[in-house]
Amino acid sequence: MPIIEVKHLTKEYDLGSVTSIKDTLRHTLAKIRGKDTWQRERFKALDDVNFMIEEGEVVGIIGHNGAGKSTLLKHLANITKPTSGEVIVRGSIAPLIEVGAGVNPELTGRENIFLNGAILGIPKKVIQSKLDEIIEFSGLEQFIDTPVKRYSSGMTVKLGFSIATSMDADILIVDEVLAVGDLAFQRKCFDRMEDMIKRQGKTVLLVSHNIRQVERLCTRTILLNHGRLTLDGIPKDVCNAFYEASDKQILETKSSIKTHRNESNGDIEIKSVSTHNMAGENISTITHLEDIEFQVTYQVNKTLPEPVFGIGIHTTDFFYLSTSQSLGKLSPGNLTPGIYTLSYKVRNFPFLPGIYALRLGVALTGSFQSVLYSENVMPIKVIAPDINRAMVSGPEEGFVAMDGSWSLISNELHNRHSTILSG
Amino acid sequence: MTNIAKNLYEYRELIAALAWKNIVVRYKQSYLGLVWAVLKPLMLMLIFTLVKSFVGIETGEIPYPILTFAALMPWVFFQESASEGVNSITSNTSLIKKIYFPREVFPLTAMVTKLVELAISFLILAALMTYYQMLPTVHALWVPLIIFYVMLVALTISFFGSALNVYYRDIAQALPVLLSLAMYASPVIYPLSLVKTKLIDEQAAGEWSETLYTLYTLNPLAGIIDSFQRVLLKGLAPDFNALLPGVILTLALLPLSYIYFKRAENWFADII
To answer: Is residue A56 exposed (0-12), middle (13-18) or buried (19+ Cβ within 10 Å)?
Structure first.
């Protein structure tokens, strides 16, 4: 029998603020007389969601902001009730919906351990016996008798996580809590989570924006999109689909971003930018390690003595990844007014799959005075040569892959030779 | 009703922990600490005694200060648990939105907190009784039952009020005003015997006198305060005629109030 069953779960919220008593009375009276046509605007946070979870499964829930992930968890934790549909949970739940929800700033760390334990339904005896372990895990031995209001935010979260994970529940609900504390503590949390999953065989529901984490921990992943369950399957496939959708969204919003630098003195303008493959065809996406060519068409309005061209690539959050400039490689001489097309060929395009952007610059040789500088000129979408993109992507894996070649040979024959020689 | 008792037992550790938190947090950084809890009835007792010295209220052979203190104890306990209870849901928003446990834990906790403060008041009462050389009789055994009855009355208001307060914060604003009015409608400053003499013996309101008296005792606090004074100070059994109308009213309203609370509970996290 599945430990969690969600059947046709729909949750609607009223939009706008709560109405006054007067309005409520008027509408109630009108409803009794059967002629109330008034209706508040409603928002579907969850729309006919169906799934079942068996005991011991580790399920990741992913989706964009506002997809309904937290609303779903709130239903599972019985904090709110569905508008229609049914949620059946067979077992006790430890909700880590927000670590430290019950932490009181006036109480000391030790007092908070007992209070939070009681709130999470852990018997006092169990807390008593686990007290040392909890304090040790939190790493707050020195501060445990200091009021929490004097703690840093990171310390508060450490305390909350240590208490919450000491609860012995059948189902663990985790909402974005692993992204807390310093790196060392994150590591500890992660290990404890893995221990609960792998060794204790607990059922876990994990909501995270860290897709790699979901991929690594989960045995199954659910993708929510605007309150609907769009995909349910093995993490790799679902995560890949989510990556695709996110990339598309970044591309779409790209053109509307106006925060980037864009400077020009008017002597030279960018007319168009395009990417081509070696066959000369215009392409919209670049395959990792493909040979490509960028073409930039400039309109020169005033004679430029010995210009130097620059071309570079940055991430969507303006982290510069590469810069190349034409000094010593291209001698254009005095550039008279007119239209020119600059070509820059790249062999084995080294960037890993993801979304990047192009930046361009033109400066004068002698003074290095900039005459044109523009960021975010064109989005660059890089895809993997094979379908399994999750293998090689994500910021954790870096941005570039060297174009090397591999080989592996056995050293045994060689070793035997040396033994004989030395002997 | 049995549900309340069941939850009270099942969640006793949680209620105890939350009540303990309330008390610790309230008095942690104060020098006088728990003394503040008993300062309210003490101050009111002094003021009433002062007022009584030039207004003249017939109180019988019991000294007025101890009589009014014995009236203030159940009254302040009722008043504070009701107003704390009504605010208990809205003041715990972060818990309501994050973790589930039966929501009646909050009003119950508010009451348990006040029970501790009431216990301290008993020490003051004991001191007063020693001073006036009064000894409690066997009828003092009624006290726990009377306190339990006060709790039921306070819960009736807490359940309904706290649930409604989630939707309309007017409730928490209106409650202090209503409660201070209710104090004058209860035998706190004056004894119930005064009302009884006026209405029953002297028939001050003519043929309406009996009805008015029943109406007056419909206020559960009338019976409660009178009984509290009788069993502790006068060494008499409670006056069941004065208790009955209030008991009936409370037993009729408490289940309704609780049902309303449990139905509203489902939407607390969405509305609050």
So the answer is: middle
